[in-house]
Amino acid sequence: MSYIKKGALLFILTFIPLSSPLAHELASGGSGFLHAITTPEHFLSFVAIALMGALAASLSSSQAYIYIVPGVAGIFIGLAHVGVASLYSLSFVGGVIVASIAITFGVLRVATDIAKYFRTLNEQQK
After folding, report:
1. Is residue 80 part of a domain?
2. pTM across the whole model
3. What is the distance between the alpha carbons of residues 1 and 95, in angstroms, rounded to a whole number?
């Protein structure tokens, strides 16, 4: 894929997680990890962010971006839900960050398996 296509895809995917119009309040005492994993709009946003991290890694040839992008996004998404005023808030943000990394790991695992499947399928057809 050319750099222009990768840049365009990165630009488009940037707005997917930031465009959710659904604002909501948290239930008191909720876990940031469970909130990010079980809420469909958050889960899909983190999947898009994981893909953004993979694109950033392919553009810069640095594998660290695969996990840095979701980690930083997790900080901002977590802080958008709660302030930094209490230990609970920091715990919630930490849970969101861990969820973003876990979702990224899962997305990369599934994407790798799909790529391997299609690679072996193409090799068998040759």
Report:
1. yes
2. 0.70
3. 35
